[in-house]
Design goal:
This protein has 162 residues and is an alpha+beta fold. 30% of the residues lie in helices and 25% in strands. Residues 1-19 form the signal peptide.
């Protein structure tokens, strides 16, 4: 193969950050976003930007906070064991968002997600969601569980700026 075609192929191959995100991950992220924002705002691909940070290393979580997450010690240890696979600087999911209730760009929301940390059985996830509008910004750590009805969970408000 001529060198030109090799270079062209390399440039056109998506990088991990650009690759299409699996639909099940997109569903998880959108549900975490809806829970974090109080279910009131949809997402729009055009407003999702790169994550500024990943969640703090789970080893740094204090025992009091670990118990506050509602995770059992075994669940927390499982997520911690899978944490390194989720580290993705400037993570930007490439999703076809469910737009049933999209406010998205019209609302002015800027959204970012950390790459989700998934349990070994892929039924528990921990993801950080941040969003802003105008001069206020919010971030939450969402603990999500997969049930037969889909993803559900709760988000702990990690920070707010008003």
């Amino acid at each position: 193969m001529p060198a030109f075609w090799v270079i062209a192929l390399a440039l056109s191959t998506p990088t991990p950050a650009q690759a299409v995100t699996p639909p099940e991950t997109c569903t998880l992220l959108q549900k975490a976003y809806r829970i974090s924002t109080g279910e009131g705002h949809g997402t729009d691909l055009s407003t999702v930007g790169p994550a500024k940070t990943d969640p703090s290393p789970l080893a740094k979580y204090r025992p009091e906070f670990r118990s506050y997450t509602g995770l059992t010690p075994g669940e927390f240890a499982d997520l911690q064991a899978n944490e390194s696979a989720a580290v993705s600087p400037s993570y930007v999911p490439q999703c076809a968002w469910d737009k049933d209730d999209t406010v998205g760009e019209k609302s002015g929301y800027a959204v970012a997600f950390s790459a989700p940390i998934l349990s070994t059985d892929r039924r528990i996830a921990l993801v950080e969601v941040s969003y802003s509008k105008g001069i206020s910004a919010h971030g939450g750590l969402c603990i999500m569980r997969l049930s037969p009805a889909g993803w559900n969970g709760r988000c702990i408000n990690a920070w707010s700026i008003r």
